[in-house]
Amino acid sequence: MTRDALKIATIGGGSSYTPELIEGYIKRKDELPIKEIWLVDIEAGKEKLEIVGEMAKRMVKAAGLDWEVHLTLDRREALKDADFVSTQFRVGLLDARIKDERIPLSHGVLGQETNGAGGMFKAFRTIPIILGIIEDMKELCPNAWLVNFTNPAGMVTEAAIKHGGWKKTVGLCNVPIGHRKQAAEKLGVAEEDLFFKFAGINHFHWHRVWDKEGNERTQELIDLIYGPQNEQESHLKNIWDAPFHYEQLKDLGMLPCGYHRYYYIEDEMLKHSIEEFEKGETRAQVVKETEARLFELYKDPKLDYKPKELEQRGGTHYSDAACEMIASIYNDKRTDMVVSTENNGTITDLPYDCVVEVSGPVTSHGHEPYNWGAFPPAARGIIQNMKGMEETVIRAAIDGDYGAALHAFTVNPLVPGGTMAKTLLDELLIAHKDHLPNFSESIAKIEKEQPDTVAYVTELMKSN
C-alpha cells in the first residue's frame, strides 16, 4: 500500500472499546500515516458516539497529533475513499444480548452469545448488516481492507468473504492473545521467544507451543495450567473458570480455547449460568452495568487516555490487535497473528473454502496461515459438527430460511434437539423481530399461530 494519508473508518464507533482502538493507533503513529479517523454509528448509538468521539479527540490531541477525528451517523460518508474499515458493532445493542442469554436460560439451556443459541441469533442479526456494508464498500472504497471483530467473528467473516465476495477481509479475536500471554507467563519466558500454532474456528480453536530451541512445550503447559496440583486460571473476563478435566486435555495433546469449557464441561457451565440468571446477573447484564460506568468515565473532559477499567469489559486487546493488523498490512510487517481467514487447505478436516481461525504472518496481501493438517479424532468430530452448524447459520441468516435456522439449532451441541430447539428458535425470533427483516414471514406466522409464545417472551422481558 502506497498512500501516505490514510483514512480509517470504524463501524460501531460509539463502542466502549473505541478508546483502546485510538490508543492502538497512537502507539503506531510512526508506522501509520493517518490523516482521518471516522467513527460512525446509528441513531440509537448517537449519544455514546458523541461521548466516546470527544474522548478520542482528546486522546489524539494529548498525543500531539494532527489527525482529524470525524463523528457521523452517515455510513456512506465514513466509507468513501477509506483505506481500512474496522467493524465493532452490535445489532440491537446490549439489550439484544440480554435476550440472547435470558430466553434460553429460562428453559435451562445455555444462551452463550457467540457459540450457543444466542450466538446463532447474533449471527442472524449481524450477517445481513455486514453484507450491506460490503455493498457500500464495493461502490465507495473498493480497495479497502475490512478488519472485522464483530462477533460471532468467524461466521461474520465467512459471510463477508464467501457470500459478500470481499476477499480483503480478516477476522480478529482477543482470545488467542490472552492464551499467548498466559503461556509466556507460565513458562517464564518472553512471548516473542515462543512459537505458537493455533487452529480451529472462532471461539473453538486449540493451540500448540514451541520454544526457540525447537522443543515443544505443549504438554508442559497443560501440566502447568490444568494439572491437578494447580488452580486453573482463565485470562477471559467473560467466562467462568470452571476447571477442565486434566486427563482429557493430556489425551488431546493440545491446549484448549477458554470457550471449550462450554463443550467439555457443559453441565458445570450451564449450572453456573442458571445460578447467574436466577440472581439477575447474566453476563450481558453485568456487561451493561460495566459499560454504563465506562461511559460515565468517558464523559470526564479531562480524561484523555484509555482507563484501566476498560480491561473489565471482557474484550481487552481486541482493538489493539486490529491496529496491529492494519499496521502489518500497510507496512508488510509479517506480524505473526491468529486470524479468521480462508482455509485453503490449512486444516485438512474442514472445507477448503470455509473460514478458519489460524496462526500465520500478516503481509501486505493479507494473512498467510501456517499449515496445520489434521486433528486427532476427538477434536475432528466436534469441529466438523461446529463448522457445519456455522455454515447452516450463515445460510439461514442470508435467506431468512426458518428450516435452515431450525436445523442449525438442532445441530448445535449446546441446544437440545426436538421440541426445545423449536421453542427457543420461535421465542428468540419474537424477541428480536425488529432486527430480523429476513425472517419477517416466519415471525408473522408465529405471532398469528402461537400467542402463548408471544406472551411468554413479553413477560420474560418485562422481568429483565
User: What general outline do the C-alpha atoms trace?
Assistant: globular
**Discrete helix count:** 18
Mean pLDDT: 94
Low-confidence stretches: none
Tell me how many strands there are: 12
Name the structural class: alpha/beta
Give the neighbour order of strands across the main sheet.
Answer: 3-2-1-4-5-6
List keywords for this structure.
alpha/beta; Glyco_hydro_4_C; Glyco_hydro_4; 464 residues; six-stranded parallel sheet; six-stranded antiparallel sheet; NAD; 18 helices; 12 strands; hydrolase
In brief, what are we looking at here?
This protein is α/β, with parallel strands linked by helices and 464 residues long.
Write the layout of secondary structure elements.
Elements: E1 6-11, H1 18-27, E2 34-40, H2 46-62, E3 68-72, H3 75-79, E4 84-87, H4 93-105, H5 117-140, E5 145-148, H6 153-163, E6 169-171, H7 175-187, E7 194-201, E8 204-211, H8 218-226, H9 246-252, E9 255-256, H10 261-264, H11 266-278, H12 283-298, H13 318-331, E10 335-342, E11 355-363, E12 366-367, H14 377-399, H15 402-411, H16 419-431, H17 440-449, H18 451-462
Parallel strand pairs: 1-2, 1-4, 2-3, 4-5, 5-6
Antiparallel strand pairs: 7-8, 7-11, 8-9, 10-11, 11-12
Helix pairs in contact: 1-2, 1-13, 4-5, 4-12, 4-16, 5-6, 5-14, 6-14, 14-15, 16-18
